[in-house]
Amino acid sequence: MTKPIRVRYAPSPTGLLHIGNARTALFNYLYARHHGGTFVIRIEDTDRKRHVEDGERSQLENLRWLGIDWDESPETHDNYRQSERLDVYQKVIDQLLAEGKAYKSYVTEEELAAERERQEAAGETPRYINEYLGMSDDEKAAYIAEREAAGIVPTVRLAVNEAGIYKWVDMVKGEITFEGSNIGGDWVIQKKDGYPTYNFAVVVDDHDMQISHVIRGDDHIANTPKQLMVYEAMGWEAPAFGHMTLIINSETGKKLSKRDTNTLQFIEDYRQKGYLPEAVFNFIALLGWNPGGEEEIFSREQLIELFDENRLSKSPAAFDQKKLDWMSNDYIKNADLETVFALCKPYLEEAGRLTDKAEKLVELYKPQMTSADEIVALTDLFFSDFPELGDAEKEVMAAETVPTVLTAFKANLEAMTDADFLPENISPQIKAVQKETGIKGKKLFMPIRIAVSGEMHGPELPNTIYLLGRDKSIAHIEQTLNRIS
Ligand code: GLU
């Protein structure tokens, strides 16, 4: 019988949801949904020093924003936070202590540091050397009594099987082997403050929650042999492991770092800038995975359908902000106006630009937008003074045909009645200038566009003129004629 598929995302609430963690959550989600399995969220909050107030809420909220849902979590299940499971860990620790598979360690931080220094100076790989080594039972008892009397609180260490071979067939990387003698000696499973260490707690939790597959970042590879040791000590069956390759910055070729200012790395950033969550979801799903073929735009449902863990990439995933922005623009361009307007509204409102024309303006700029916050700068033309021309625009406007085109177009606009002043009637007025002056193509359109909008590139021209209004369009043309005369 095969085990039911149960996967988990186990964030430590130490800060905002980073793109790397979001990818871990997303691949576990896709794996669970593709195979009809269960997706669990567990909060790993045993590192009290790095604990961030509100970290858990913000993680879950951002996952929800991305469109990820789950079947089990601390919201619906008791004891899905490690801090609530201390008695569970204690029982396992007591069992390991009773069976002699773990022991209390009284060595102090100072002694460990001194030993590490000695090993480094001698060119040895730093490791913990069993403090009881060479002691008789009596000596051992005396050592413990003396340390306890001195008020030294012990940690608990796992007695490592130095001769053991710890091996697994990684879902992403293939076979990986570690020797028991290479992991730095007996390691701490319970800290002085009574909290379990990550490598220990994670095993107890994954076992209790019957996790079948552990899919996480490859920064955890070196932790896996330690975790396998706990499975071995407890006689538990280990889950399958898959370690996803790291995410690199496509510009530097180095591991994505919080110092990379050319990339937005927290999901919260995308949310605040008004990206469509579907676009961010799609982008993250392709970080280290692809379904084959050229197509890159996939809905959540398609990704669930197509997901195949055998296609998880063995080489690093490049985070390319330009690709994300291209994808985001594609989603906004193709989304319905209602959705994009709703996305833009808060930014327009804050800028005092939520006028009766706001929805039309969003429609006008929708094809150009990457994120909704851009709507404010994009609509400057409609709310601010007419901008100075840039060098490229000035060059176009230096052509001798420009005044002829602008004067003719201005006259045509002036001749339109108010009732006629509609987008569909504005194009024919541009065509009319062609007929009147014999000037066509770029020499016709560019000067008109620049005279009205101040820029060579921009949204669709007749609609821009319509939304700007006749008076303002004419005023801009006059201003431009004065500037170039
Ligand atoms: N809390 C760990 C982390 O955030 C989870 C690692 C794991 O998935 O085992 O890195």
From TrEMBL:
Classification via PROSITE patterns: AA_TRNA_LIGASE_I (PS00178)
Enzyme Commission number(s): 6.1.1.17
Organism domain of life: Bacteria
Motif ('KMSKS' region): 255-259
Keyword presence, Metal-binding: no
Key words of the record: Aminoacyl-tRNA synthetase, ATP-binding, Cytoplasm, Ligase, Nucleotide-binding, Protein biosynthesis
Chief location bin: cytoplasm
Gene3D superfamilies: 1.10.10.350, HUPs (3.40.50.620)
InterPro entries reported for this sequence: aa-tRNA-synth_I_cd-bd, aa-tRNA-synth_I_codon-bd_sub2, aa-tRNA-synth_I_CS, aa_tRNA-synth_I_cd-bd_sf, Glu-tRNA-ligase_bac/mito, Glu/Gln-tRNA-synth, Glu/Gln-tRNA-synth_Ib_cat-dom, GluQ/Sye
Record GO terms (molecular function): glutamate-tRNA(Gln) ligase activity
Subcellular location: Cytoplasm
Chain location of the short sequence motif 'HIGH' region per the record: 11-21
Cell wall biogenesis/degradation as UniProt keyword: no
Catalysis: reaction(s): tRNA(Glu) + L-glutamate + ATP = L-glutamyl-tRNA(Glu) + AMP + diphosphate
Function of the protein: Catalyzes the attachment of glutamate to tRNA(Glu) in a two-step reaction: glutamate is first activated by ATP to form Glu-AMP and then transferred to the acceptor end of tRNA(Glu).
Subunit structure: Monomer.
Entries under HAMAP family matching the protein: Glu_tRNA_synth_type1 (MF_00022)
Family statement drawn from the similarity comment of this UniProt entry: Belongs to the class-I aminoacyl-tRNA synthetase family. Glutamate--tRNA ligase type 1 subfamily.
Protein name: Glutamate--tRNA ligase
